[in-house]
Specification:
Layout (H helix, E strand, L loop, with lengths): L2 H14 L18 H24 L18 H16 L4 H9 L12 H5 L7 E11 L5 E11 L15 E2 L2 E2 L2
Antiparallel strand pairs: 1-2, 3-4
Length: 179
């Protein structure tokens, strides 16, 4: 099944008030799933939580259940490295920290505190911004659905609100990237 079709199908089911998992029963009010599918999801979640707790008590990694870990840690170095690489890949379409830092340095969005922004909330370009396309990135949405989105290097934005943390950064001047 094509990702776009699946996404559109879930959207239609949700709008019709039908469970987006089984597509058979009415969804519980305020949720996308029916009571039956919600209970199955809860059972899986509870089982995974119990498994993690048992592994933690045994002193092994809560992810793989094989490698031992220090008292103050939950995951082994191997699993931590895998998770870190996956997070970077999902966030930026890359697995290296270096390219992560480069991406953050060259776009205003990484230094913006505007949580009402169309780009941050809906991945829709902001009207009046100056930006150049950079490529694609994989994002994880509701229910773990992965979608590919266009990414941009934002140079100017009318909705930019400087992050206080970056106020002393020489490369940022009044919302514009110094070239």
């Amino acid at each position: 099944m094509d990702k776009e079709y699946a996404k559109e199908r879930r959207k239609e089911l949700k709008a019709a008030g039908i469970c987006t998992t089984c597509a058979k029963r009415p969804a519980v009010k305020g949720f996308a799933k029916c009571e039956h599918c919600r209970s199955i999801t809860k059972k899986h979640s509870d089982k995974r939580s119990k498994q993690r707790e048992e592994r933690r008590k045994a002193g092994v990694c809560t992810e793989c259940g094989v490698n031992s870990v220090a008292d103050n840690r939950r995951r082994c170095d191997e699993c931590n490295a895998k998770i870190k690489a996956a997070r970077l890949k999902i966030k930026l379409g890359s697995t290296t920290e270096e390219s992560s830092r480069e991406s953050r340095a060259d776009s205003l969005c990484w230094h913006c505190d505007n949580y009402g922004c169309m780009w941050r909330n809906f991945l829709k370009p902001v009207k009046g911004w100056t930006a150049e396309p950079k490529g694609d990135a994989v994002c994880v949405g509701d229910g773990g659905l992965r979608t590919t989105v266009k990414t941009y290097k934002v140079k100017e934005c009318p909705e930019f609100k400087r992050t206080k943390h970056y106020d002393n950064d020489d490369t940022w001047e009044s919302g514009l990237v110094s070239e």
